[in-house]
Amino acid sequence: MTKYKFILSGGGTGGHIYPAIAIANELKLQFPDAEFLFVGAKDKMEMQKVPQAGYKIKGLWIAGLQRKLTLQNMMFPLKLATSLLESRKIIKKFKPNVVIGTGGFASGPLLQAAGSAGIPTVIQEQNSFPGITNKLLSKKASAICVAYENLERFFPKEKIVLTGNPVRQDLIDIHSKRDEAIAFYGLDPNKKTLLVLGGSLGARRVNQLIEKELESMLSQGVQVIWQCGKLYFEDYKKYNQPNVKVVDFIERMDFVYAAADVIISRAGASSVSELCIVGKPVIFIPSPNVAEDHQTKNAQAIVEAKGAILLKESELDSQFSIVFEALLKDEGKQKQLSVNIKRLAMPKATQHIVAEIVKLIK
């Protein structure tokens, strides 16, 4: 039996790392003897998270372009050239059958080097509006697995496969875990629970909003699980109390989703895909500080299907308390949002992506 080898690259944020790990896990189920290597960016969170998941990882000296003139930007051509050279060495030594990119700084040079070496590459595009790197890489890619329709204007139509984004399999049946989750966080089973998600690093504007609105929320009988992010935990841990659980990072996403009645979240691609499977009422507050404003576009795709509420950061001061209070009081609206967002779920995304990868090696 052939021993297959796979290189996966994705990082910078949990939204790129966890899909790559999910794909590797699924490949491992199908090919227990396969060898895996991850390639990430040095000093980014994948250098910890990937080994924790049981895989080897190599780091490239690469970072993204800043939007303003900085020393980092001036270093970018050197970093890119070094990373391309290092990627070629990695590919030559490891000899992968397929290289899979889930986004993040390192996947650019790695997939470019793989394509140049004639090795099949798979792009897993998570957003409704692709970044410039994946647009460039798509010309040589063997397959492009996407989570949204109508991406033909960005990618070669014949390479696009609608698969959805990989999600944690423990989210498929969260409703049976509600009692356990409420007990885990020491919450009141008779109160509505608000879950606030700012992403793995945290979201300053979302944290400022929750700080400002916390008293008002509590007065409406709500209890809160507030994921403020590692960067902000020291600033906000003082709000910990019986009805408010402030955490920096969430290990058991299945528990927080099971406990939640209403969710406030950023609109990163992985979060949006998870929230479709979870099927709870969501208020999206997209980050405006990401490339091509793709979080707003991700959220809009759900809003157009009447599956969520979208508030831009610029609208929070004037609109948030009105929108939140109205949603909290309207059980019918909560149910309608839940049903509509659940319709967009693609729970078998990981299996579909792996099926596309397998086609390239059979």
TrEMBL record:
InterPro entries: GlcNAc_MurG, Glyco_trans_28_C, GlycoTrans_28_N. It catalyses: di-trans,octa-cis-undecaprenyl diphospho-N-acetyl-alpha-D-muramoyl-L-alanyl-D-glutamyl-meso-2,6-diaminopimeloyl-D-alanyl-D-alanine + UDP-N-acetyl-alpha-D-glucosamine = di-trans,octa-cis-undecaprenyl diphospho-[N-acetyl-alpha-D-glucosaminyl-(1->4)]-N-acetyl-alpha-D-muramoyl-L-alanyl-D-glutamyl-meso-2,6-diaminopimeloyl-D-alanyl-D-alanine + UDP + H(+). Residues 193-343 form the Glycosyl transferase family 28 C-terminal domain. The keyword Repeat does not apply. It is a peripheral membrane protein. Residues 6-144 form the Glycosyltransferase family 28 N-terminal domain. Its main location: membrane. One of its GO terms (molecular function) is glycosyltransferase activity. It is found in: Cell membrane. Cell wall formation. Catalyzes the transfer of a GlcNAc subunit on undecaprenyl-pyrophosphoryl-MurNAc-pentapeptide (lipid intermediate I) to form undecaprenyl-pyrophosphoryl-MurNAc-(pentapeptide)GlcNAc (lipid intermediate II). Belongs to the glycosyltransferase 28 family. MurG subfamily. This is UDP-N-acetylglucosamine--N-acetylmuramyl-(pentapeptide) pyrophosphoryl-undecaprenol N-acetylglucosamine transferase. The lineage of its organism: Bacteria, Pseudomonadati, Bacteroidota, Flavobacteriia, Flavobacteriales.
